[in-house]
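Lab channel / #folding
Pinned by the channel admin:
"Please post every new chain as: sequence first, then the structure tokens as a reply. Keep commentary short and put observations after the output so the thread stays searchable."

First post following the new format, from NK:
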Amino acid sequence: MLRIFPIARFRAFRLVAAAALGAALLAAVPAQASMERARAAQARGDLRAAQIEFRNAVRNSPNSAEARAALAQASLDVGDTDTAEKEARAALERGYDRAAGTALLMRAYLGRNRSQELLRDFPAPDAQTPPAVAAQILVGRGHALLNLDRRDEARAAIAQAVRLAPGAAEPHLAAGRMALVDNDRAAAIAATDQALAAAPNNIDALLRKGTFQYEAGQFQPAIETFGKVLTQMPGNVIARTRRAEAHFRLNETDAARADVDAALRTAPGNPTAMYLRAVLQASAQDWRGADETLQRMGNAVQNFADGFLLQASVKNALGQTSQAEDAARRHVARRPDDPRGARLLAALELQAGKPDAAAGTLERIATRGAADVESLDLLARAHLAMGRPREAAAALERAAIMAPDNVGIQARLAGARLAANNTAGAAEAAETVMRLDPSQQGMRQVLAAAALNRGDLAEAERELAQVPANLRDSELAGIIDATIRLVRVDLPAARTAFETILRNHPNSIRARLGLARVAAMQGNAEEAERLFGEVLGREPGNGEALSRLVAAARSNTPRAAAARAALERAQTAHPGEPSLALALASVLIAVNEPAKAVAILEAEPLRPRRQGTGVQLLLAEAYAQQQKWNEAIAAARTGLAEEPENVFFRQQLATLMVRNRDPRGADALLRVGLGAQPGNAVLQNALVQVAREERGLDAALEVADRLARQPESRPASLLLRGDLLMGATPPRAEEAAQAYAASFAQTPSRELALRQAGAWGAAGKPEEAAKVLEAWLSREPNDVGVASTLAQFEIALGRNEAAERRMAQVVAAQPSDAISLNNLAWLMQARADPATAEGKAKLAEARLLAERAYFLGPSPETSDTLGWVLAKQGETQAALPLLRAAVGAAVARRSGDPGMFYRLAYALRATGQRAEAIQLLEPVLATDTQFTEREAAARMLQELKAGG
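Reply from TO:
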């Protein structure tokens, strides 16, 4: 039987092989078509479609290494690292280039965060591994080691990769990453350039190069570099978004928007592209659109450095302030050195009426040294909102250092300095503004205010005349004009001016203060108290309102109770304000109501602000007045514990211990203080007073002499003996003068010279006093303080012409010293004869000085001087309120020059008020008190009674 099976098998095999070959040839056609469609999809940026077509190509040609590798790369492009790893392995198994395939596989591992597995699956290559392949393995290992923070091993692996394949891009890119980890930006840029030299079209190298250019502010070059990526790979979302950012920085918003839209077409949910869309919408003030985009992003917003900041800005623009503040606070917590976030948060806090919180936010960034000009400017606004002009000026001074040519900063600095009574600084800033921008004539009112604060009314008027008409209605310009009228004692015009300001600026503190001064000068104490109370209601720490009401409340006048009531109302409204509490408590102690003072000082609202305010000092005094020694001592000890270096707490505690019959404890306490501060005059004086209280004057003198012999206690201790003798009962003035002279012989000082002169004066020897001061001025001819004191003795000696010359020198050196100005004005008017042209000119000059003195230092003395000069010029109606104020204050404080009564009587007589003049003079002349004008006063009284 014939066997034909083998032949049949052979034929069958040939048929099967032919069929397989035909099938392969048929399959290659659709696979190639898929590859072409995939390339086309990549070209138009549709990466998902490209991956699908490459997958179809693999399905149609499963053994194609090229298709497998292409699918692996496409999968990496869309972030599908699982497929990328699988296809890279398949490509290598099918004979794909080992170096290129290994590079793909390394990227897939790293994309899946499989650093440990990469190191395990790909050990360091041996010498048998081809260099190109070994280099890719080492690159992968280097990245994995960096991910695991094994930097030294990574550095070695990457360096070896560069040596093995210097012509490949990947080792240089890895070296660049290593350089960035080492904070060597220059090396990173150089490595990137080497990668591009090896492979000019390498996507990763181009992306990194463009990023470096963007970060260096080279936006146009960055756009061109990212464009090279997009030429090869239009669907590269990273290149699209980064180029969009560069376009945005160049204000090319249309181009930026086109790139963002293209990125979102490729990757609709891409967070970076969505974030950039929100940024673009916000820049176009499409707040609703930006908010919707950010909401679609969800929690991804927090992954962007400025995400919370953008969210806060958008929410703020939409009026959703609570959400805006929350987002801004998150940004500040995450980026505490970013001034933009601090500014936005502070602005929101200011808007919410929380200037203290805003100041805290901005102070924190300023303390870190990260504040910019805008942050410091906003900090100043916060301080001003809290009534802290000094702190505002300090913030603006720092801003001005950063931006010396910023007109706005300099202008606000001028205003803040003016509010802080730094008139010289305000004028300097105003002049800077006008130098930078001569059109800023509004600064003339700052210069006018500065001149006014110096007491130079004529200069203030000249500057005010140059203020543009459209600014004449400003609060500041109005205040200056009204104040000039007040100082010129044109009270009706001053009242009208201040009332006008209040109508236009209802919250004006300065207008209320000015109107209160007018009311006081017109004798309307009730109105003055009401206005000062209103000032405290708006600004509870206002110094002038406090001092005026405290003086009235402590006076022996019918208005004392009303002034005290005004203080009580203000303190009830602001129980946590230390200065107000101290003011009222001091009044209560003065009128012997210490228990009420204690209640105010111990109140809960004041407790957080008691440290460093002097509250404990006054509290101890209030307890002591009630003879509650334990409580008083406890209060003083608390103060000393809070401020161990505060000598006044130590002095007070020692005084209380003496009054509580513990002089030894007081002595020990003071000696401990002197151990730390041996030259402190307060502690030295307290120690000798303890000795005097316990053992008498002689014992105190012994302690004083012992201290004076200790070099470390000088110069203060050299005053002690003389001070004790001057404080004796009765004063031993001549002995004191000799003691001061002996100390002066050891260590000459101005203080000893002044003390010695004062002692000689008290001993009735003004000639000796003058000699001492003349001797000192021969040593220190520019000592204006001593010169001013010498002028006083010269007046006492009848040397008025010499005194006037000396006071003129003092005023030239201290043009803003109210006492010197007042004394010179007095001397000049005393030597001026109103009947002569020369005398009238001298009186006019004296008036200018008196006006400045009264403005700079309103007091009974300056009021009396200005009033008397006006009276001598024949302006008795204007003089009358000033002279009344001087006498009223003298009566209230139960002291003063009796001549004030004569001068007021003179003005009363001149204005036809004869009865009041008689009533004023009779009690003064009924005593045997001697004063310069006594004879003139007696003659006037006689004439008045005779009907003259």
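NK: The mean pLDDT is 88.
TO: also worth noting, Residues 343 and 375 are 6 Å apart (CA to CA).
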